[in-house]
Amino acid sequence: MAIAVREARVEDAAAMLHYARTLFAEPDLDLPVAPGEFQISLLDEQAVVADHAARPNAVFLLATSLDGEIIGLLSCHGRPLRALSHSCEMGISVAKHHRGRGVGRALMQAMLEWAGAAGIRRIELKVYARNERAIRLYRSFGFEAEGRRRRAVCQDGEFLDDIVMSLLL
Whole-model pTM? Predict the structure, then answer.
């Protein structure tokens, strides 16, 4: 499967919202967003993309199929304080029908190339403890578990743990 990865642009915001709404409608999604809670406007999404583009320690990446459809997103957002600016928090998602096809790996590789050029020295993320596929992907890139947040999320009445992982560059 051919995958293109590039930085998001403000003009991508509408397509990104469509992707996100489709993603958040999935049952059993391992994101702490309940149905109906994702209420971001086009202007809000444009502002998020612009904010990432304006920061030297942030990036918003899109994975697209050859026809230009968004099939994955990765956000790595740095902190504004000088003492923390070497670090960023990453979040990633892949469209349901494209999982297991290298989309997440392509996004992660592009993010690590960006991080090296941007002077990022620490990347951290949180992942549901039950999301073994994602944990394997992160470990394959060298991420290590730093801790477990017990009952961090309550989804459909069930308390779920998540794991904090990081990669030091």
Answer: 0.91
